[in-house]
Amino acid sequence: MPRTRLSSALALFAAFALSFGLGPFASPAVAAPGRTFEHLAPIKRLQALQLAREPMEHKQERKEFAERQRELRRLAKQMRKSGKTALRVGGEKARKDVRTEAFPAAPAPVFGEATPNAAAGEAAPTNVRCNTPTGDTAGDGQCETSLVAWNQYMIAAWNDGKGFHDGTNQYQGYATSADGGQTWTDRGTFPIPAGSPNWSWTSDPVLAVNSRTGAFYFSALIDPDGPSGNTNGIGVVKGRFSGSNIVWQTPSLVRSVSYSTEFLDKQWLAVDPGTGRVYLSYTRFVSNVSEINFQASDSALTSWSTPALVSVNSNNIALDERGLVQGSRPLVGSDGTVYLVYYKIGLVDVDAYRLAKSTNFGASFGSPTTLMTFYPNFGTGAPGFNRAMGIQFASVAADHSGGAHDGRIHITWAESLNWFDDLTGIGLAGNRSEVEPNGAPAGANTFVSGQTLRGDLAPSCSWPTRWRRACSTRCACSGPTARRGSRTVSRPRPTSRPASAPRIRSRRP
Question: What are φ and ψ of residue 342, in 5° steps?
């Protein structure tokens, strides 16, 4: 959701401390060994704890939202009594209404790469805005976009921060295009069921389309009883284009659970163009412990199948996946086979993508198998990624072309170099203290690979904010050696390295 996530070093250390307690991993479902993840390597224990923070953070956000709503009601009442349109609080100067405040225009987009025909003088394409910023305030944002197309018809959806202040409690926005994306119309928010006036679309927008019929589907997390209710769930709505307009049916409730014990997250959609069936997978947190569930429906979303467990729950800690899984992706092969890919945190260093397969239209799945293992970039996120503790998920696609590769499924993922082998040697080459002034390249303090760097990481530090938070006043660096001509040099790097370029692998089922 477009809200601030906790990523401070304090939260990091708090999460690490939890790994030695029973709290978040005492699952009421099935008593099994390993709920405190003592069998995991310490870095993997921290990774699992970060995953468990998702439902805890959502509960905290709901609490903060309720407090903001109470404050807004109080301020609105005060304004009605005073007849003012701006408030003076605690001796502060009256603040302008942000809706009337002028903000500088966004800079023109810069294209850093040449187009394929740049040598022939072809101009870079023009960016086209999908949303209308009217009514946005300075703190509003649109994120986690989803895009789908069928012929010339397109829909884009996103998390929309406007819902925090416009009174709708709807946090999903969308736009449509009927000319292949050349022009877009912001359609506002998605419809809600007539019998559920407090229904709130909250987060994680996902779009899908039946490539044969042109039926569009939108799914997102919901609060069926509103932000102040005690339930959370998943909703799906079906629509078709009529001319240049999209006509939505009544939204369908896939599943709802109580916030007190469960939380549903990271749902994903797939549509079978042959049968029209709609498949949906998601992560279910029970007392903050994750598992992967799956449900299916007919094309009209009349009813949904009973939730099925796809990931592995086992009393054998070497096999048990509870609390280690997230980011599932269903897809349909050209023969109607249903595949489900999901992310699993490893026990020592490498993580994995797991694959489960159904040959009876999602009625049941075989035991999951491992597609591949890889070194994750946990702890930093990819270059430019603004979440300090990034967990990255795969993208999947199936070949329905009818050609030579028909039936193949494809998966892309991000991975890192093996930095786990550095953990035991970090900081063993002694200390290097910062000496001021060193704010310019000419005065920078030198250090060697493997040293522990100590000093003042005040705001004047040129490192990115997320690095300053993570390192506080201490940072350990290590690095490989690289051969340049006949001279060997040390190439320092942060403890966690940037992710490499995405990789793609194809698999014939």
Answer: -145, 160
Assess whether 328 and 455 both reside in one domain.
no
User: How many whole angstroms from its chain centre is CA 25?
Assistant: 22
- Kindly state whether residues 448 and 323 are assigned to the same domain: no
Answer whether residue 108 shows pLDDT above 90.
no
Helix axes 42-82 and 9-18, enclosed angle (nearest 10): 130
In this prediction, residue 11 carries a pLDDT of 34
The stretches of 306-423 forming alpha helices (DSSP H) are none
Tell me, yes or no, whether 185 and 256 share the same domain: yes
DSSP assignments along 211-275, one per residue: TTT--EEEEEEEETT-TTSSEEEEEEEEEEEETTEEEE---EEEEEEETTTEEEEEEEEEE-TTT
Distance, first Cα to last Cα, the chain: 35
Report CA torsion sign: 495, 496, 498, 504.
positive
Whether 289 is in a domain gets the answer yes
Q: 264-267 long-range contacts, Cβ below 8 Å, gap at least 24?
A: 264/221, 264/232, 264/233, 264/234, 265/54, 265/55, 265/58, 265/204, 265/221, 265/290, 265/326, 266/204, 266/326, 266/327, 266/328, 266/393, 267/204, 267/206, 267/219, 267/220, 267/221, 267/234
Encoding tokens for residue 105? 């225009």
At 457, the pLDDT band (50, 70, 90 cuts) reads low
Supply the CATH number for residue 397's domain: 2.120.10.10
Q: Are residues 438 and 410 in the same domain?
A: no
Q: Using one digit for the tens of pLDDT, what is the confidence trace for 216-264?
A: 999 999 999 999 899 999 999 999 999 999 999 999 999 999 999 999 9
pLDDT of residue 479: 33
Residue 435 belongs to what domain range?
Answer: 427-477
In a domain, 355, yes or no: yes
pLDDT of residue 211: 95
Q: Which residue has the higher pLDDT, 445 or 56?
A: 445
- Residue 402 and residue 380 share a domain: yes
- The closest of 297, 299, 249 to 274, measured between CA atoms, is 299
The burial of 486, by beta-carbon neighbours within 10 Å (0-12 exposed, 13-18 middle, 19 or more buried), is given as exposed
> Which DSSP string do the residues of 315-330 spell out, in sequence order?
SSTTT--TTSEEEEEE
Task: Summarize pLDDT for 159-211 with one digit per residue, the tens.
Answer: 999 888 888 999 999 999 999 999 999 999 999 999 999 999 999 999 999 99
Domain count, the chain: 2
pLDDT tier, 53 (very low <50, low <70, confident <90, very high otherwise) = confident
380's CB contacts (< 8 A; 6+ apart) are 388, 390, 466, 494, 496, 497, 498
Q: What is the DSSP letter of 56?
A: H
**Helix and strand tally (H, E) in the chain?**
3, 25
